[in-house]
Design brief:
Largest sheet: 2 strands, antiparallel
Order of helices and strands: EEHH
Low-confidence stretches: none
Number of helices: 2
Length: about 70
Amino acid sequence: MSENAEPPVVAVMTNGTLNGVNGDHPPRPRTPQPAGMSLTEYSANPSTPPEERRSRIKGVVPEDFLLPDGHPD
């Protein structure tokens, strides 16, 4: 007989499942992987801010940092 007389370790299976899992549990929850970015109507065609808000933005943000649509960069 060999010096290592221990039997090999084999996962115990019952009804085709590994030890500790009875097969009645749903799969573990996982975070879905996004397939891409959704494009909303606003991001596809943003509206310019109202004149009051534009003047307030211009008072805080320098002209060089304003985008052509009036929003700050």
